[in-house]
Design goal:
By secondary structure, the chain is of the alpha+beta class. It has 13 helices and 6 strands. Helix 4 packs antiparallel against helix 5, helix 6 packs across helix 7 (160-167) and helix 9 (187-194) packs parallel to helix 11 (215-227).
Length: 296
């Protein structure tokens, strides 16, 4: 099985795995969860992690379910309240499907468990906006006051550093949070702003972002403000030859030593993750290129 196919299988099964793990960890009713087929009118939509939906994306999903069948059941309570699978339900309605397969469970579930299942499903299958990720992770931390960052990262299968970035808008001004909501700024931009304690400095950085500055420019500007500097040496190419004989090269619009250090930290984390996943060098290069393109 190819890597991409394996990732697809894992992403499709992950919410179900999370749910079944919760069943093992807690008491289950004698009947247990059941799989059934229910008409669309039986389902009740409830608030969930994803706030916005793209009709074209939903239509493509619906047409896929028409041609390939429903690859994963939705989840619901006995009264029809949907626990996960909102996109599949909306897509089915959009293309005129009559019914859906559903896992019905009467096991009591806390708000935290429901949100965790929903967030896990969306983060690993259909990208949420940065604003939605922030709201959902913030809610999970609020519902679990004893959690530390490592707990959030473990439950969502992400790095702790990524969890810190996702939650960084909480340390930003309301103007930054609004810019994130409107898609005028990203999580990485908010992360750079969150390191500045002064509201005036955050406001100046936001003005720079809204003027069209890139993510790297925002990070550099934020670093200069933190360091109290107004200028730094920038190059388009930085090649570092190491005693081992290996040479590391950085290229970009402007490269500083600070940016190179941050880049090395990110690259080291990515390479360690690739080793854990058993990826070869060529595959890692393609994966990193795809990630860079998606964030661009």
């Amino acid at each position: 099985m190819s890597i991409s196919a394996s990732c697809l299988v894992v992403s499709l099964c992950l919410p179900w795995i999370v749910f079944l793990g919760m069943v093992v960890a807690t008491a289950v009713s004698p009947s247990g969860p059941q799989i059934a087929t229910k008409p669309l009118a039986w389902f009740i939509l409830a608030p969930q992690v994803r706030k916005n939906y793209d009709d074209d994306d939903l239509r493509r999903l619906g047409e896929s379910m028409k041609s390939l069948g429903q690859l994963q059941p939705v989840g619901a309570k006995p009264d029809g309240t949907v626990l996960w699978g909102h996109r599949r339900l909306l897509a089915a309605k959009l293309v005129g499907l009559a019914a859906l397969q559903v896992i019905i469970t009467d096991r009591p579930m806390s708000d935290s468990e429901i949100r965790l299942i929903q967030l896990t499903e969306n983060m690993h299958r259909a990208d949420l906006s940065g604003y939605e990720k922030w709201l959902a992770c913030s809610e999970l931390m609020y519902l679990n006051p004893t959690w530390q960052m490592k707990d959030l990262a473990q439950h969502l299968s992400i790095d702790s550093s990524m969890g810190t970035r996702i939650l960084s808008p909480s340390r930003c001004s309301p103007a930054w949070q609004e810019a994130l909501k409107e898609g005028k700024a990203g999580i990485s931009d908010c992360y750079a702003a969150s390191k500045l304690e002064s509201p005036e400095e955050q406001a100046a950085l936001l003005a720079l972002k809204l003027s069209g500055a890139s993510r790297d420019t925002i990070e550099q500007a934020g670093r200069k403000k933190r360091n109290g500097t107004t200028a730094t040496v920038k190059v388009a190419r930085l090649r570092c030859a190491l005693p081992s004989g290996v040479a590391v090269q950085f290229t970009g619009a402007w490269i500083t030593l600070e940016l190179a250090i941050d880049a090395m930290k990110d690259l080291t984390a990515e390479l360690k993750r690739a080793i854990d996943q058993g990826l070869d060098s060529r595959t890692v290069v393609r994966v990193l290129a795809d990630k860079a393109k998606a964030k661009g």
